[in-house]
Each structure stands twice: as C-alpha cells, then as structure tokens.
Design brief:
This is Helicase SMUBP-2/HCS1 1B domain-containing protein. It is built from 4 helices and 6 strands, in the order ααβββββαβα. By secondary structure, it is an alpha+beta fold. The two termini are 27 Å apart.
C-alpha cells in the first residue's frame, strides 16, 4: 500500500532533516574532540596554507589555489575533487569563513571553488594562513528542501 504524495514528501523531508542533523553533529564532534594537529595527522585537515592564486570561473564562481610556503608538497590528506569543504584561519579553525568545493588537487596545491554569493576578498589579503576542513553537503540539503 503506497502513501499519499503529501505524506510521502513529509516523511522524506523529515528523514533528510534527521540525516543532515546527524552529519552536523558528527562534523561538530570531529572538530571539538580533536586538535588541529590531530586532524592534520589523520588527513582530515590541511593547515598553514597560503593563497597561491585566484581566478574567475564559470557562473561567477572563483577558484582559489592554496599551497604550502615555498611550494612544498602537501601532506597526505583525504580531499578529492567535488568534495565539500570549509576554510578557516589556521589560528581559529573552529570558525569557518567560507564553504566551497574542491576543484582540483595536485602534489603541491589544492584548488577550491567558491560560489559567487560569498565575499572571498578576505582570502586575497595576505594575513595569516588558512586551514581546509571537510564540510557536510549543506548546498545539496538546501536544494533538496526547495
């Protein structure tokens, strides 16, 4: 026996919200339970990165390349193209500045794509270093809810 459409959509929405909350709880626990050094050692975080270059992309997006000082290779990590990330100052990695998506990864740099709605000028100002952390698929959740 099938549910009426309205009931089905309501149940589906409820399940998606529960899944999102579980992902948020897991992400927050990850950040609060481990130090930045532990996150980096596990490959979950890349820290002390500098902006190497910034360029415009299709749809008004911006791709920002990050890397280590003196073009040293990046340490082993779990980031891959298409994965959602957030970026923060290394000194305050618990306060994300922007959300984005990994655009490309090489031995010595990682490219992140940011939506045009985000004011990423702060990334272009050379003060301090940045940390890249995994993020939940917030954009996907927002689209599903629409």
């Amino acid at each position: 026996m099938s549910l009426p459409l309205a009931e089905h959509v309501e149940k589906w929405t409820s399940l998606i919200k529960k899944e999102r909350q579980a992902e948020l709880d897991q992400f927050n626990a990850l950040l609060s339970d481990q130090s930045l050094a532990e996150l980096c050692a596990a490959g979950t975080c890349l820290a002390r990165l500098h902006v190497k270059e910034s360029r415009s992309a299709l749809g008004g997006r911006t791709i920002v390349q990050f890397g280590k000082k003196n073009d040293r290779p990046l340490p082993a990590h779990k980031f891959s193209p298409g994965g959602p990330i957030c970026i923060a100052h290394t000194a305050d990695h618990l306060t994300p500045l922007f959300d984005g998506v990994v655009s490309n990864v090489s031995e010595d740099s990682i490219g992140l794509c940011f939506d045009r709605s985000q004011k990423i000028e702060e990334l272009k100002v050379p003060r301090g270093t940045f940390a890249i952390l995994p993020r939940i698929y917030e954009t996907t959740f927002q689209r599903l809810m629409q």
